[in-house]
Amino acid sequence: MLVILIAHAIAAVLAPLVVRSIGRNAFYPLALVPLASLGWVIANWGTERELHIQWAPGLSMDIDMRFDSLAAIMSVLVLGVGTLILVYCARYFTDDEPRLGIFAAEMVAFAGAMFGLVTSDNMIILYTFWELTTILSFLLVGHYAERATSRRAATQALLVTTAGGLAMLVGIIMLGQQVGSYNLSDVVANPPTGWLASVAIVLVLIGALSKSAIVPLHFWLPGAMAAPTPVSGYLHAAAMVKAGIYLVARMAPGFADSPPWRVTIITLGLASMLLAGWRALRSFDLKLVLAFGTVSQLGFLMVLVGVGSRDAALAGMTMVVAHALFKAALFMVVGIIDHCTGTRDIRKLARLGASAPWLATIAALAAASMAGLPPFLGFVGKEAALEAILDANMLEPWQRTTVVAAIALGSVLTVAYSIRFVWGAFGRKRQRTPSAAVEGMHAPSALFLAPPAVLAVAGLVAGPLSPQLEKLLTPYSTTLPAGPHADYQLALWHGINTPLLLTGLIVGAGTLLFVAHRWAVQRLRFQTPPLGNADRAYDATLRAMDTLSMRLTGFTQRGSLPLTQSTILATLVLLPVILLALRTDVWAEIRLWESPLQFTVGLMMIAAALAATVLRNRLAAVILVGLSGYGCGVIFALHGAPDLALTQFLVETLTLVIFVLVLRKLPAEVDERQSIGFKLPRAILAVGVGAAVTTLAAYAMNARSSAPIYHQLPEAAYTLGNGRNIVNVLLVDIRAWDTLGEISVLLVAATGVASLVFRHRRFGTAPRVADAPAVVLEAASSTETTWLRGGDLIDPRHRSLVLEVTTRLIFPTMMVLSVYFFFSGHNAPGGGFAGGLTAGLALVLRYLAGGRYELGETVPIDAGKILGVGLLLAAGTAVTSLFLGAPPLSSAVFEVTLPLLGHIKLVTALFFDLGVYLIVVGLVLDVLRSLGARLDAQEEVNA
């Protein structure tokens, strides 16, 4: 299973390159990936396979996958139909289709995500794949991004399904916490009860219903018809919309008797079947006819898999297979019609059947299965559905009657819009000659017709072979309780019985409805849709949310930074202190200092902080703030934390340099006339924040009721992380997930700074001497000895030869020290962060001495690439350990004895630390390039 996911991921990455190489024919080799995966599914049919990879057990996020009968059924549909859709794409698109490579990658990735969804046992992993399909659906529906309709449809689908997914996530967490396991198999085997479980079930069902476009969350599916037809044929027939059906089918064995289960699923499912079936009769776009028909059929499927009986489950799985076959085929037929004639409007199509007889035959076969006519699989499934509902003893007699009547009425609508589809697309319509669109059409190729033909014929063949199909479906249906009679057997003929009589009535009534619709119903002119318009309700909801958010934002954010900051800080002071005064019985014992040296350093820090608040000169204030930071580093050192002290000194120095770079663009002194507010309230607030934080920290330390965990850290660092430097082991091993998140934030910050300064795009590497304008090169000062190449381009009035010589001598030493910190950090003070900061300070020194051209000479590499390589290294260690069967970011130790070097002990966390090192260096380089070199260039232009 994991290999299948990896294969689809690799194919998705390579798809743009393959498309660029061989054009639209790239879909043929890409189709081999789901085809080969389908072979694995068929080879393992009837077996149960499980995969367990420990990842983050503390967060219940282990990779647990399970392949059983239900997963096999859904996998065949996802991979089999996916293969045919990719083959269909090779003839549907042209070689010059915009963004075709990205589209191919998204389609292959979607197939892999759907396979991951139906085989996931861990509910958190299932949710991850669930949302991945949502994102890919957004991208696929919005393929024609230049069209407003596509953008709206993609956004609508994203908002509706994501909102449902978030509700489902809350329900998943509630169920997982109640059961004590996040594995779906455990939850279904031991279903919780009570009102809390009922709430969780409703939340999960919201996610499933929104994904499967069930009323009232159905409106996104007709809108998604703005997508290319292959997307509709795959996502909206056989894949994405089946995700909700799958989840309900998966949970039905454990939760079918839950109080909210049947009333929610059956009521909304029947409403979808009826309302969408009616809307299908009102549409003139062939694709919309199928879209509303899909919503109607999904409601039918939801009812069958939600009833909770063995026969209903068998009927549901039969209809799931039948629906995937005929609906994907019909969507592809519509795509061929649109491709060949340039229209999908049934009012512009006449006598197409005579011009394209093979296409008409394929459409008729698929539509017959959709209408439930014998001997197609759709007929077998509908007969089984009627029989299952009639024998569903978990429903009251009046409920069974109501459900059967609603299904019969919905089936009448299905027959009517099935006939309307075939007649509207291929009928003569009392015209002696083809319509203009049909007359100017080009004939579809055999390869273009092959994929829908395979599916349509499969629906025909599967009907007579339904007893053999039943053997493949019953392993799932037997997981639900049996009815009062013997288990239902799939077959074309069960004698003359109630379902058969109902089928005859449905077909006759559907035909009459189609005839009546032609001459009577379609002549009605409604000022507003008789059943309402869900799109308008959606737009009204968005407008209401926009209005509410604007009013809330206007109330809470007045546009004043001092007011906003004061509100946050005042809350920080008042809320914790009041709660502490009312709810605690612990008294804090505070020792102000342990040695006179600490007292002296503390006084210096206080004096520097107070002086910084009254100085008008910005540079002097920044230096004093830095002095308080250096004092904090001294305190760390006095407490026996040299690693923290080293990091504090390096960060404080680098911060001071960045402040100085920014201050170049500001006036030297603060203009008191432009100060906002009164100083006294701000001073009181500042003192209050300091006092509150100090008090909370003191109470937190005195409130401990057990031994602090730091007593265990020295041993844990050596036994778990194979290092003696506790701080570094914590960062790169024990709490490496936190570090990975923090360096990701650093990367985002660097990108944000570059965006603010460059406004439009990154400018690549810093300029080198060869990039300098000719005027600058001619005016460059030249000496017999060049200490720094960029120094020759500095204005002699601003050049310091002493600083250049010192930099030339010190820079190599600083870089060696940086490397030493990096390699020694696992067992001594240092590490990737400290080493990166040291290297960054060396680059700062080089820039200050030699100017912006010297920065490019020193590191002629784009800072963004350094940041990317660093993040790739850090994240790669997680993936590598995962592939080796270990938890992500876990360390391994290699020991070897080499000549001259002696005994070497290498911990793989070093590679993670290397990523941290490169990210810090890249961040410093990006800041110097944006706040330094870029601003220098602007000043030269202004001068």
- What is the count of helical runs? 36
Total number of strands: 4
Q: How far apart lie the N and C ends? A: 64 Å
**Spatial extent as radius of gyration:** 35 Å
Helix content: 55-70%
> What portion of residues belong to β-strands?
under 5%
| Strand order, sheet with most strands | 1-2
On the 0 to 100 scale, the average pLDDT is: 86
Detail the poorly predicted runs.
none
Large-scale geometry = elongated
By secondary-structure content and strand pairing, the structural class works out as mainly alpha
Q: Report the sheet with the most strands, covering strand number, pairing sense and barrel closure.
A: 2 strands, antiparallel
Throw out a few tags for this protein.
943 residues, mainly alpha, two-stranded antiparallel ribbon, 36 helices, elongated
Question: How would you portray this structure in words?
Answer:
The chain has 943 residues and is mainly alpha-helical. It has 36 helices and 4 strands. It has helices at residues 2-22, 27-43, 69-92, 100-119, 123-141, 148-179, 184-189, 195-211, 220-223, 229-235, 242-255, 259-280, 286-307, 310-341, 352-355, 357-371, 377-390, 397-426, 436-439, 446-462, 466-477, 498-519, 534-556, 561-583, 596-614, 618-638, 642-663, 679-702, 713-721, 726-734, 736-758, 774-778, 801-824, 832-858, 863-883, 909-942, and strands spanning 49-53, 63-67, 893-898, 902-907. The strands form 2 sheets. A two-stranded antiparallel ribbon has the order 1-2. It has a two-stranded antiparallel ribbon with strand order 3-4. Helix 3 (69-92) runs antiparallel to helix 4, helix 11 runs parallel beside helix 13 and helix 25 packs antiparallel against helix 26 (618-638).
